[in-house]
Structure formats: structure tokens, C-alpha cells
């Protein structure tokens, strides 16, 4: 039996990008010890990151307990497990990859979440916190808010569809009485203060495409419906600060919160802002999606591209977050305008060219 007798928090998704930052916030607010489920291949990285976190907050090294396991296994690979009288569970582990294979997405995002839900039920946790995504919306045509979920939408990729099905599973347990809160971030980029990130995906493909071309003239795609589409981006520090704040309040149980930008940039404006920050004169080429996908697929081996990102250049969904804005009113937490921190994202990318785009799986 794995016994974590005095752990107050159980967390999946460490040492991932969001999980690491959220773990630090949880400890800084005085909760813990925290038991972290870590895949064996990331154990040494987790140990190093745990030491860095406890050093920054001047905390006890025993405040972070690492346990080898995997959400794709029954019992999370832990066997029988016991906790103390009080335990909250934060489930962040997922495959964050737009081009993910169907079977892998199914195993991690859907079956993995079901395993974590069963684990939480056996432990009779006091609270379950689940990190979903705004993109459970799929290609919903309209404004998607916290109350929306099963709207008959189609999906851009296996990532969106499996995260949708995972949230449906969480919502079913909530309807059966599980005290849970769901958080739906939009597209998460680096820290708005430092620019730090550990993965160049999503909007970073656009930045890296521009940086791979001459500054005096770089090229980007524009699809027929791009002018009407929005690219909803939020920095990591806003996402983890909002989750840390909302998860620390009893009245947020049973709610869904979208952590999105209430005033996002249109796709053309987003491209212009990225190009200006990178110091590149950019020519946007109007084209059809099939042509753009063919060109992107052929260039993927030589340029930093991901054809799956093209679907977000004409994404029909707009996101609103009325519940989140109301819940965070008076806290000082709000999404900074993308223009206010894009220079930091670009500077970090220029100074750290070796950061990859691979998902943690």
C-alpha cells in the first residue's frame, strides 16, 4: 500500500509546464504537503524541479512527495493508496498536442481521466479540480460560454475531441455528487513577466516560421475566414494564478470557469503584432485551407510548422467568460493584453532556440 498519511493535495501533471507553476502556488498559499504523480521517465526532472520550487518559496523539501505512476494504468500504477482525512486532487495530466494520434489521445485524455476519477472516488476526496480547455467547443459556430459543453459540435483534431469527452466524464461525476471545479484555459503561452515557456507549440509555430525567414520580408498564410476569427491567448501566470485563487474558495465547487481573454485579437491583428515584435516585415498570402495544408505538410520536415494549427486561422468560435470575470472581480487578476507582453515571448524564444515542441507523454 502506498500511504501518504499527511498529504493534503494530490496532483497529476508534474513536472509539466502548468503543473509545476500551480504546485508552487499551492505551496506558497500554505497548502501541502503535495503528493505528485510522476511518470518514471520524468522522475529525475521532477526531483530537480521540486528542489527549485521549495528553494524559491523557502519551504520544506518534504512538502513535495513524488510517486511513480501513470494515469493510463488502473489505480494510476500506485496500487492501494491511503491518504489522510483531507485531500484535494488536481488533475492536469493530459496530452497537449494538436497533432496527437487518436489512440494516444484516447488512452491519456479520456481513459486517463476516467482512472483519475475512479481514484478520487475511492479516496473520497474533498474536492476535485480538473483542467480542461476552452477548445472542448470544437468548431462551435458562435459565442461559447461556461454553461456550454454538449452542443453537437465537430472537432478540429483528436486533442479537442478527447478533452471534450474527458470533460463530459467529469461533468457526469459532478452530476452524481462529486465536489469538483472545471477550469478551461484558452491557448496558453509563456509567462507574461518573463516570457518563459517549455514548449514552442500553437502560436509559437507562427513566430518560429517568421524567424526562419528574412526579417526584410517574411510570409504567412491568410485563409478566407481569417479576418472574422479570433486567436484567444492567455499567459501561463494568469492561468495558474486564477486556478490557485478559484480553487481556494468553497463556493467555486460545482462551477466551470473559462480562463480566456475577454478581448482577444483577430487572427490578422495577431499576426501583425507577432511580426512587429519580431521585427519582421511580413507579407500575408491569401490562400485556401487545402492549399495551405498541402504546403505546410510538405515543409514540416524543414521548417517549424504544424499543419493542425491552420484550423485555428479560421476558427469560428468566440469565447466569453462571464462566470470567471464575476468570480475574480476585486482580486486584481485579469488577462493582460497580448500586446503588453508579446515582446517578452519573442525575446525568450530568441534567447532559447533549443526549446522543443514535443508534448510530455
Automatic annotation (TrEMBL):
Any one GO MF annotation of this record: alcohol-forming very long-chain fatty acyl-CoA reductase activity
Domain Thioester reductase (TE): 11-243
Gene3D superfamilies linked: NAD(P)-binding Rossmann-like Domain (3.40.50.720)
GO biological process: long-chain fatty-acyl-CoA metabolic process
SUPFAM superfamilies: NAD(P)-binding Rossmann-fold domains
Protein name, per record: Male sterility domain-containing protein
Native source species: Natronobacterium gregoryi (strain ATCC 43098 / DSM 3393 / CCM 3738 / CIP 104747 / IAM 13177 / JCM 8860 / NBRC 102187 / NCIMB 2189 / SP2)
Organism taxonomic ancestry: Archaea, Methanobacteriati, Methanobacteriota, Stenosarchaea group, Halobacteria
Amino acid at each position: 500500500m502506498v500511504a501518504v498519511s499527511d498529504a493534503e493535495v494530490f496532483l497529476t501533471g508534474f513536472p509539466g509546464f502548468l503543473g509545476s507553476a500551480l504546485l508552487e502556488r499551492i505551496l506558497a498559499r500554505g497548502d501541502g504537503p503535495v503528493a505528485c504523480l510522476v511518470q518514471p521517465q520524468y522522475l529525475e526532472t521532477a526531483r530537480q524541479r521540486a528542489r527549485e520550487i521549495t528553494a524559491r518559496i523557502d519551504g520544506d523539501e518534504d512538502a513535495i512527495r513524488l510517486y511513480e505512476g501513470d494515469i493510463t494504468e488502473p489505480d494510476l500504477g500506485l496500487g492501494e493508496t491511503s491518504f489522510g482525512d483531507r485531500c484535494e486532487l488536481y488533475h492536469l495530466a493530459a496530452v497537449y498536442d494538436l497533432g496527437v494520434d487518436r489512440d494516444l489521445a484516447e488512452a491519456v485524455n479520456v481513459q486517463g481521466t476516467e482512472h483519475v476519477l475512479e481514484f478520487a472516488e475511492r479516496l473520497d476526496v474533498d474536492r476535485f479540480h480538473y483542467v480542461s480547455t476552452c477548445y472542448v467547443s470544437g468548431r462551435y459556430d458562435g459565442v461559447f460560454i461556461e454553461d456550454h459543453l454538449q452542443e453537437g459540435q465537430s472537432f478540429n483534431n483528436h486533442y479537442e475531441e478527447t478533452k471534450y469527452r474527458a470533460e463530459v466524464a467529469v461533468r457526469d461525476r459532478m452530476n452524481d455528487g462529486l465536489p469538483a471545479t472545471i477550469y478551461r484555459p484558452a491557448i496558453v503561452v509563456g509567462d507574461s513577466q518573463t516570457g518563459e515557456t517549455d514548449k514552442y507549440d500553437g502560436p509559437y509555430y507562427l513566430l518560429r516560421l517568421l524567424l526562419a525567414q528574412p526579417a526584410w520580408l517574411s510570409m504567412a498564410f491568410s485563409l478566407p475566414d481569417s479576418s472574422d476569427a479570433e486567436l484567444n491567448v492567455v499567459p501561463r501566470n494568469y492561468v495558474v494564478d486564477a486556478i490557485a485563487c478559484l480553487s481556494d474558495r468553497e463556493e467555486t465547487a460545482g462551477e466551470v470557469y473559462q480562463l480566456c481573454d475577454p478581448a482577444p485579437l483577430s487572427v490578422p491583428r495577431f499576426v501583425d503584432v507577432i511580426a512587429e515584435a519580431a521585427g519582421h516585415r511580413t507579407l500575408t498570402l491569401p490562400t485556401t485551407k487545402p492549399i495551405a495544408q498541402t504546403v505546410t505538410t510538405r515543409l514540416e520536415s524543414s521548417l517549424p510548422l504544424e499543419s493542425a494549427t491552420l484550423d485555428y486561422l479560421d476558427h469560428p468560435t468566440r469565447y466569453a467568460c462571464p462566470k470567471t470575470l464575476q468570480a475574480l472581480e476585486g482580486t486584481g487578476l485579469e488577462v493582460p493584453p497580448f500586446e503588453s507582453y508579446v515582446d517578452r515571448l519573442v525575446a525568450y524564444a530568441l534567447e532559447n532556440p533549443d526549446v522543443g515542441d514535443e508534448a510530455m507523454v
